[in-house]
Amino acid sequence: MKKIIGIIGKSGSGKTTVSRILEECGAHVINCDLIAREIVEPGSAALRQIEETFGTKYLQPDGSLNRKKLGKLVFQEPEALKKLNAVTHPQIEKQVLKRIESIRDGIILLDAPVLLETELKKLVSDIILVTSTHNKLIERLKKRDSLKAADAENRLNAQRTDAYFKKYAGMVLENSGSLAELRKKTKSIYETLLKEDLQMAVKKNEKLLFQREKGYDKPSPTEKKKIFEFSDGYLGFLDRAKTERTFVKKAVHALEAEGFKAFNRKGDLKPGDKVYILNRDRALIAIKVGSGSLKNGVNLVGAHVDSPKLDFKPIPLFEQDGFLFLKTHYYGGIKKYQWPAMPLCLYGTVVLKNGKKIDICIGEEPEDPIFTITDLLPHLANTQMGKKLSEGIHAEQLNAIGATIPMDVEDVKEKIKYHFMYLLNKKYKITEADLISADMTLVPAFGFRSVGLDESLVGGYGQDDRVCAYTGLKAILDSKDSASTQVLLLADREEVGSMGNTGMESRFLEHSLEEIADKLNCKMRDVLSNSRCVSADVCAGYDPNFPEVFEKNNSVFLNGGIAIMRYTGARGKSGSSEANAEFTAQIRNIFETGNVMWQVGELGKTDEGGGGTIAQYVANLGLDVIDCGVPVLSMHSPFEVTSKFDVYMAYKGYKAFLES
Fold it and tell me: Which of 119, 278, 472, 593 shows a CA-CA span of 20 to 30 A to 92?
């Protein structure tokens, strides 16, 4: 196997001598200085670019590069050095990769003066730093390059310090003594590298076994920074996207900002076009038309944007014993006891008889009032606490306090209700009858926060499944153009069985793809049969507080990366599709090629429960489909917990899939 080692150090430190000794010992040496000379030979593209950038005065009479003259310039002027690097570095990197590929195995020494400033540093597993005293460096430069002392000083001053180099080097080789001493030290390092290479070969054989990895042990400091920056955007987006309508509205704004346009049924469609199709403001399809034929199918990422919540009943307001209550009907699978005694905000869209829509949001701003559902104090709750958890709070007790002050109005019996509607009418110009044609819901009033002193986790409402909807949205916004047509589906109603005209049991996806196929002169049958789908949905992360419901060997863990679930369903794999081995292998390859950390598992113990996602409905259309999503703790509660690492890996995974 190959082991690539970098070598760094100041000019005159002895890197070339160390490289030669290592080559004598058996290492393969790739000298970037030599490559740099080769790429600027007369007639080369790089030399033409240098001539265009710096002028003919830096060429010899025979047309070759005047390296000494150009070197003096770039060591004195940092901007000139940047321009030169922009020309030469890509060409050098390309040649280095070719030479590495041609070497079958063994220790490869990469001698690159600018190793740390280029993408080449990603290739090396360790770095040797060659150092020497300042006086020795000056002495060697004067002798080697026929430099004056001042020029030698300038050259050294233009380079990084040893203190900087030591931050990246795993091995330091001090070279201020004799050649014999240097040879002995270098051979000792080579023997160490051989031992490490042997150990790596042993570890490589361990890949015969599947091993779980912990996310935060693997990424570089740069990627950790990206993870936390990505999560900042995620927290900010979901803070005000707590319902299907608000999420879809924000998604449309994000799509339009990146050039997506509403699909025009009368217009043309061509490769490179970016369009979206809305479904009643509660579901959405976004499409990037690829350069290849649509007959080859599409790459589809599908997520749902609905979450468990408390919806208003058709007639929600009732006054009783000095209170105006908001009567709710819970949506999706909730634990009813989790919803009392917490701040709630009101989101809604009221549709008047003339079709005008009025959006309502009360409780999100610091100055807004909030709503709440009360619970019994422990002193009076003996009977309540003796019941099963599922019976401690009944559905008809999920009544939120709306107001308590009556309004002094003659001929009005329910004066508190009248006061409530007066305030609502004053701000939104609606009546109680208008609530009949409204989508009104109560959701937690608190925002998203980092969880844990290390801020590694995310806590907030509605991450099932808006965490996958957001990462899927960001993936299609950031994805590169590809031959494949890329599709993002944001569906509604998953939490209540996916039925309805905005859910997955509707023909929204099918009809939308059919319209695209007609525009591009393709048969819908060909498009569907050749398409692939990632059902982007969350899964239950292993919770050490409740180990009894998990089969640990087949669980997924926070900080383990995006989770692959070949099937969901319940006992006997009922109520779910199952991804075949061939498509599962494709997904593994896409993730590993894209440097996406992934894990695999299922929802819980076989007979403990189960669940279904949009995968089963997509599979019914003939697509290859697999569930891939983010592990969640406290799923379906008002405050769900995910890992920032997993959220970022979901984004990377969906992006890699769309581009594949």
Answer: 593
Q: How far is CA 557 from CA 215, 404, 451, 606, in A?
A: 10, 46, 16, 18
CB atoms within 10 A of CB 385: 10
pTM of this structure: 0.70
Cβ atoms of 316 and 308 closer than 8 Å: no
Tokens of 600: 């695999």
**Residue partners of 56: CB distance under 8 A and separation at least 6:** none
* Number of neighbouring beta carbons within 10 Å of residue 484: 23
pLDDT attached to residue 141? 86
% of the chain surpassing 90 pLDDT: 65
DSSP code string of 254-298: HHHHTT-EE--TTS---TT-EEEEEETTTEEEEEE--SS-GGG-E
The predicted structure's pLDDT at residue 147: 84
What is the pLDDT, as a whole number, of residue 202? 60
Lowest mean pLDDT among 4-18, 191-205, 561-575: 191-205
Looking at residue 217, its pLDDT comes to 77
User: According to the model, what pLDDT value does residue 125 have?
Assistant: 87
> How far, in Å, CA of 646 to CA of 206, rounded?
25
Q: Is 79 left (phi over 0), alpha (psi -120 to 50) or beta?
A: alpha
Tell me the average pLDDT of the chain: 91
For residue 200, the model assigns a pLDDT of 65
Please provide the DSSP assignment of 500-567 as one string. STTSTTSSHHHHHHHHHHHHTT--HHHHHHT-EEEE---EEBP-TT-GGG--GGG-B-TTS-EEEESB
- Mention every residue, 6+ apart, whose C-beta is less than 8 A from residue 464: 307, 308, 537, 538, 632, 635, 636, 640
Query: Which region, left, alpha or beta, applies to residue 259 given φ > 0 means left and ψ of -120 to 50 means alpha?
Result: left
Residue type, 167: K
The encoded tokens of residue 372 equal 């709440």
Split at pLDDT 50, 70, 90, the class of 148 is: confident
Cα–Cα distance, 484 to 533 (Å, whole number):
12
Cβ pair 173, 18 in contact under 8 A: yes
Calpha distance 384→395 (Å, rounded) = 14
